[in-house]
Design a protein that fits this description.
homodimer, 664 residues, alpha+beta, Immunoglobulin-like
Chain lengths: 664, 664
């Protein structure tokens, strides 16, 4: 309840003459508790209900402060009608922008508006002109000398009975600049925008295991082998090369092939069992190379237009130095042992989780943050964070907030495959991008619903979806039969539905599809062993994937999220549930991408896709240019026939082009 | 942005080990800035998203403090699924309730849950039992002696290896009472509920002009005449008798009959031109009677079950004592005159508005509040406030807030016929009830839409609609032809759609319908002259109105708002737009009211009204009991035929009754 209702007296009330209210300000996340997210070049459109008692004319401005600004910039707001106002600002620098609103009674505009009606009605206005002259004099008293003289001139004209002088545009302009904003209302909160670089929204990730990157089968891959692999990854068109943890791997309770409980001698263990005698989260697994090699890899990747993403998994093997140096950061059991990770009745004795309820939580937080800082100092700007939802929320808010204040270029990808509230909350707390449920959305209706949830509900202002068809942890059942069509449609949807996507290779392009017994996971998973891949396999999807990434880069609509829209495809006057069509366009539909996917891996599917020709100003006849096959179809009207054969190519990615664009 | 993101250091961070988050708490008005409203006996259902990192079991409580409570009461919250929780409390006392939420990791439940899974899997649990025993000992240390002993017994059993002891309901109960809530998260805001008496929601208002209440034509009515009129108003079934301003009326610029610019000698003027030589807002117009007479009227009304509502119009005639005593409360014009009310080019020279931007705004606020206090001291508990939207919002928030703190029984009706944002905002600021746009909603679709807006959107938590078919200021065009049917349907809808309604009589029951030239207002309006009414006119609607109020009192569903629902009425397989059907039921449909209205004043309209028989558990055959005509129809199934003739009775008010209820 506001101050007002809790005090009978007025002594502590503040300025009771503020008459303007500002309400329902959007965008806002949880009443301004968390920032919204944007990338440089974006517009932020702020709307609010702004009104006062009575019928006076109001004025309102957006106040905006960029990361380097010492003071506010003001942008005018416009009344859209029904007391609803809008203002827009653009964000041009990475870092945190702050915005708020100020509104007040526009005394001059109110006076001018009423004078106009009096003059129209032929009323005597002498006294009204005197009232106006006093306002003009008040503005003059707050204006620099030459302007003050101009204003005094206007005041004199009004006093002399010149009503027309009141309606001079120049006077209105000067009055809006210099008349004090009496009893102005400032919106009660300052709101924040986390502004990231474009890669935060538009990015293609490729994950590979460095230890499987050796040219020679059976050999442990190194950073140098990864450097040799860079041309391949760049040719596929990716932006970010993501490596699983590169740290020393634990010895005690090391897992063997296919997650067997005991490793045989010589088995490499899981890179997520972090820490050994050689060091912990700030050390490099010796078989991968040295810190100098790592620096070389970072630089080489950059020369191919790739940024390196490291995997930050805050957990320790029993051999991690932290276990010895900071036993207080782990939970002790009554028998003197350290509590290993569990999901009863399952036990993960190779992993010790940190105890975020430790009495030395501050020491733990500083140390964990210093892990990021260490790798930032080595040139890393992108982090994929393993299971952030099993670590304290408040830690992430503080850690990412502090790191981004010093390094606003950082990108954090949250790997939280958990309940929606938790997944979305991590994005509020600061994670730039997040893995999603896309991997499990396979039916038309659930894909459509999910796209709607991600792009049309309040989460769109803070949640950065990243669509992955697979990960080392996830091989979903639709892949088990090994249909090439499924591999094509899933990767095409991931790459064109959302501006950010990623895949785990070379497993994916080589269409690995055999699951481990009883789990949605790969057999002979690289998590537990070194593999060797034939990148030149003639069945590889590499050229298809390269084409997808190239289409993304040359078609602006695919670089945004909020513009996605689902279209029905009918067959025999009913929805064909096997054909999923969706579009993405630039504003005003100057550039239109329409994707049609056959979700049925076995049958040809056909139907009539509905195109909003009028809304998109396509005219009677237009061209559907399939960017995948570089084929052009002449389409007419609202419904056009499509047919997709899973045996050949189950996806259309059309650019719809107007007639006048045809010859080019 | 939260504290966390703005500090690199942890010194000022607070407790970093709070792991639980509380979000999306409902109900809340503008992030808790304003209270929600309820009446005594209501339940407040609070929901929230509550979750933590990881997979621990959580516990949450609602904390509630009533108007007289010194400390919090706690109500458990229940997990509904998907991290969404619900708790309920009831409000039993008028005044302000405060509620908030607290949630924490339930360490014992987490341990018990995991132990259960381990035992099921046949695992060794000796160490786990020791962990549990330590928790039980911790609880014992915080429990009173006898309980501590019981808990120590449980701890001993666990230490002795008795896993079954862990699952004793008694242990769970004691642990939930005594184990400290470690690192609990309190919701960041305290939220408020304004709890009013039932009359605040369920009320029927009757407005009359005391000066027209004399038995003898041409005589100025008095409070004594109003006392003589009380049996009539009570017989009609009203709860509140509302009088236009009763204060001395200004002389200068007094308005004559039909709002003519100059009054003839002897014309009484408008009661809203408040203040004369006899006094202002705390004085009584001498022709109405004395303060003693007024006290008698208050007491007599109460003896008939009626409360008196006064009209508070904060404006002054040029003769008001404030004009002389406090010229600083009005706006001065450069020619030395006081600024009268205007809506250019219209001038209202008989009215001076207060200047809420006066430098003595505090003096003005105190004085205006003292007007309410004066009449409260005379026994008035209900106020109708004239044009509150032309007075400062902050004044209302302070004034109503302060008054209700001392007098929580007060009811304030806002007469703000203005834009929706402003109308709704006055309700947030404290007005109990509000006039609505009902008066102008005449089509089926717009009535349906308006009912939805009032009862299903966020405004339902703070806006108290009061439906009026007419007022002294409003005679809408549907009445002009004088159709009895329109008078019947409009008053029936006002009385049954919303729990609060009101009408301006005897004008309404006597079906006055001739408008003043060019305005939606009555000809020969009582605002400007004394009228005389023949209450015994055989065409009077008095018995119909009495029947409506009686139906309201004996049918609980009509005493709430949120339960209204619109039903289609079909004719020839299309919606009959002339028949409007809506229902109100108690929870679980134990009591069902179904109203059908013929909106067409000239033609018989018929159709098939759709009844959700399954949802309402009505069975194959049920009774539709028309409470207006006391006629019973046997209905079958989902669609039943209705036919309404405007020439006889254009409204059905059915109570739908189950077969087993039939013989009664």
């Amino acid at each position: 309840m506001a101050e007002a209702a809790t005090h009978n007296g007025l002594a502590a009330f503040g300025e009771g003459r503020q008459r303007v209210l500002i309400e329902h300000v959007t965008p806002q996340v949880d009443a301004g508790h968390y920032p919204i997210k944007r990338v440089v070049g974006d517009l932020v459109t702020v709307e609010a209900d702004i009104f006062a008692d009575g019928h006076d004319v109001l004025a309102a401005v957006l106040r905006v402060r960029g990361p380097a600004d010492q003071s506010w910039h003001e942008m005018p707001m416009t009344l859209l009608g029904n007391d609803h106002w809008r203002g827009v600002f653009s964000v041009e620098t990475i870092g945190t922008y702050t915005y708020t609103l100020v509104a007040w009674i526009d005394r001059f505009a109110t006076w001018e508006h009423q004078l106009h009606k009096r003059v129209e009605a032929g009323q005597e206005v002498q006294v009204d002109l005197l009232i106006g002259a006093a306002l003009v004099d008040e503005a003059a008293a707050h204006a620099p000398d030459p302007v003050a003289a101009t204003l005094h001139g206007f005041a004199a004209a009004l006093r002399a009975g010149d009503a027309e002088a009141a309606f001079t545009p120049e006077l209105a302009r000067l009055m809006s600049l210099h008349l004090p904003r009496q009893f102005a209302t400032a919106f009660e909160r300052e709101l924040h925008v986390t502004v990231d670089r474009p890669l935060a929204r538009f990015s293609a990730w490729y994950e590979l295991f460095p230890r499987s990157a050796a040219l020679e089968p059976g050999k442990h891959g190194t950073f140098m082998d990864v450097i040799a692999r860079l041309p391949y990854v760049a040719e596929l068109g990716f932006d970010i090369l993501y490596l699983p943890p590169i740290h020393p791997i634990g010895r005690q309770f090391r897992k063997g092939k296919n997650n067997s409980v005991t490793a045989l001698p010589g088995e490499p263990g899981s890179p997520w069992a972090i820490g050994g005698p050689e060091g912990g989260h700030k050390a490099i697994h010796p078989e991968l190379g040295t810190l100098e090699d790592f620096h070389e890899l970072v630089a080489a990747a950059r020369s191919y237009g790739l940024e390196l993403a490291l995997d930050i998994a805050f957990q320790c093997s029993p051999d991690h130095p932290y276990v010895r140096e900071h036993p207080e950061w782990f939970r002790a059991r009554p028998d003197g042992t350290i509590q290993y990770a569990e999901n009863p009745p399952k036990k993960y004795q190779d992993i010790y989780p940190f105890d975020f309820e430790t009495s030395d939580w501050q020491g733990l937080w500083y140390e964990l943050k210093s892990v990021f800082e260490y790798w930032i100092a080595q040139g890393v700007t992108v982090f994929r964070v393993d299971n952030p939802h099993t670590k304290s929320f408040r830690f992430w808010e503080w850690c990412i907030g502090s790191l981004k204040r010093d390094h606003p270029e950082l990108i954090f990808l949250s790997e939280a495959f958990t309940r929606p509230r938790v997944t979305y909350n991590l994005a509020k707390l600061g994670f730039t991008q997040s893995y999603t449920y896309f991997t499990w959305r396979t039916q038309r209706w659930e894909l459509a619903e999910y796209l709607l949830e991600l792009t049309q509900t309040e989460i769109k202002d803070y949640f950065g979806p990243n669509f992955w068809p697979n990960t080392p942890d996830i091989l979903t059942p639709q892949f088990y039969p090994g249909h090439r069509s499924v591999f094509l449609t899933r990767v095409a949807m991931a790459a064109t539905m959302m501006a950010s996507w990623g895949m785990y290779g070379p497993v994916y392009e080589l269409m690995q599809h055999v699951p481990a017994q009883g789990r949605e996971e790969y057999l002979n998973n690289e998590k537990y062993e070194i593999r060797h891949w034939d990148l030149d396999d003639p069945n590889s999807l590499r050229t298809f994937i390269a084409r997808l990434n190239q289409i993304r880069k040359t078609n602006l609509p695919l670089q945004r999220n909020a513009n996605v829209r689902v279209h029905p495809v009918d067959r025999n006057f009913a929805l064909n549930e096997q054909l999923f069509a969706y579009s993405k366009t630039t504003d005003n539909a100057t550039h239109i991408i329409l994707v049609v996917v056959n979700l049925d891996p076995e049958q040809v599917q056909s139907g009539w896709v509905q195109v909003p020709v009028d809304e998109w100003h396509l005219g009677a006849t237009y061209l559907a240019h399939d960017l995948l096959r570089n084929e052009r179809y002449v389409w007419q009207g609202e419904y056009n026939y499509v047919s997709l054969d899973p045996a050949t190519m189950p996806v259309h990615i059309f650019r719809l082009e107007r007639q006048e664009e045809l010859p080019r």
